[in-house]
Specification:
Largest sheet: 8 strands, parallel, barrel
Oligomer: single chain
Strand order of the largest sheet: 1-2-3-4-5-6-7-8
Order of helices and strands: EHEHEHEHHEHEHEHEHH
Protein name: 3-keto-5-aminohexanoate cleavage protein
Shape: globular
Keywords: Metal-binding, Transferase, Zinc
Strand content: 5-15%
Cofactor: Zn(2+)
Structural class: alpha/beta
Organism: Enterovibrio gelatinilyticus
Helix content: 40-55%
Distance between the termini: 10 Å
C-alpha cells in the first residue's frame, strides 16, 4: 500500500447543529459546498452523517440512499464517501446492518462495540463483517479505547473478523472530562502492534488540541480524521471559518513534515490492495 497519509473529513457528525456553527452542513446542498472546499484542501475521504428534514441524525435507508446517490454522483471522482452507521443511542445492530445492505456504500464506518455489544451478537456480526468483505465494501472499525482494540485483536485472531478490506479509527479522549483529547491519549492504544501487523489506522480527536493529536498520529504512521464532528477550533484558538480551514491546517503541516498526502486515486489503490491481503 502507498505509505502516504490519508486525510478524512468528518464535516457534521450526529449531534451538532447550526447553533454551534453556521457552516456545519445539514442538507445535501450544504454538504456539496463543504465537500468541494474540503476536496480542494486535500481530503480523500468524507465521513458523512445523513440528517433528516429536522436536522436530526438518521439511519433511514431511503434517506441515506438518496444522500449517498447524490453525493457520489457529484464527488465520486474526487472523494471516497464513507457512510456512517453510528447508533447515537437510537439504533440497534439490526437497523445498522439493514442500512448498509440497503445502500451499498463504497466505504462504511462501524463501531465494533455497537455491532457486537456482547458475545450473543458475535455470530450475526461476524456474518455481516464477512459479507462486507465479500462485497468489497471498505470497512472502518471504530475503536474507542484499549478494550475495544483488544476485542478487535481477539476477533481477528479467532477469524470472527475478516483480515482483509478494512482499517481502524482510534478515537482519542471520547470519555475524558469535557471530551478534550490529548496527544497522550495515543498511549492508550498499542500502535506498535498495529504497525508490526501492517494494519492501517487513523485517529480522530475532540476539542482544541485536535491538531496536535493529528500531528502526533501522522508522525507515528497514522492517517487522520479532521472536522466539525470533533472540533470547531482552529490553531489561532478561534472558530474555524469552515471545515476546509481545519483540513488546510493539517494539509500544510503534513507538507511541512515532508509527508505525502494520499489523493483519492492513491486511497482507492490502497483499498483495492487491502482486499488482496
Amino acid at each position: 500500500m502507498h505509505s502516504g497519509r490519508t486525510i478524512i473529513v468528518a464535516p457534521n457528525g450526529a449531534r451538532r447543529g447550526k447553533d454551534e456553527h453556521g457552516q456545519l452542513p445539514l442538507s445535501i446542498d450544504e454538504m456539496g459546498v463543504c465537500l468541494t472546499q474540503c476536496a480542494d484542501a486535500g481530503v480523500a475521504m468524507a465521513h458523512v452523517h445523513v440528517r433528516d428534514a429536522q436536522g436530526k441524525h438518521s439511519l433511514d435507508v431511503g434517506l441515506n440512499r438518496e444522500w449517498l446517490t447524490e453525493i457520489r454522483a457529484r464527488f465520486d471522482s474526487r472523494l471516497v464517501i464513507q457512510q456512517t452507521t453510528e447508533a447515537v443511542g437510537l439504533y440497534q445492530p439490526d437497523e445498522q446492518i439493514a442500512l448498509v445492505r440497503g445502500t451499498e456504500p463504497e466505504a462504511v464506518s462501524l463501531a465494533l462495540r455497537e455491532l457486537r455489544p456482547n458475545a450473543s451478537f458475535e455470530k450475526d456480526a461476524s456474518r455481516f463483517f464477512f459479507e462486507l468483505a465479500e462485497r468489497k465494501i471498505y470497512v472502518q472499525y471504530i475503536l474507542y479505547d484499549a478494550a475495544d482494540l483488544s476485542l478487535y485483536f481477539q476477533m481477528l485472531n479467532d477469524n470472527i473478523l475478516p483480515n482483509v478490506g478494512h482499517h481502524l479509527l482510534l478515537v482519542l479522549g471520547k470519555y475524558k472530562k469535557g471530551m478534550l483529547s490529548s496527544p497522550r491519549d495515543l498511549l492508550d492504544f498499542d500502535i506498535k502492534r498495529l504497525s508490526d501487523m501492517g494494519i492501517s489506522w487513523a485517529i480522530c480527536a475532540f476539542g482544541r488540541h485536535e491538531h496536535q493529536c493529528l500531528t502526533a498520529a501522522m508522525s507515528l504512521g497514522g492517517d487522520v480524521r479532521v472536522g466539525f464532528e470533533n472540533n470547531l477550533i482552529n490553531l489561532r484558538g478561534h472558530h474555524a471559518e469552515n471545515n476546509a480551514e481545519l483540513v488546510q491546517q493539517i494539509s500544510v503541516l503534513s507538507q511541512n513534515m515532508g509527508l505525502y498526502i494520499n489523493s483519492v486515486e492513491d486511497l482507492r489503490k490502497n483499498i483495492f490492495r487491502s482486499f488482496e491481503s
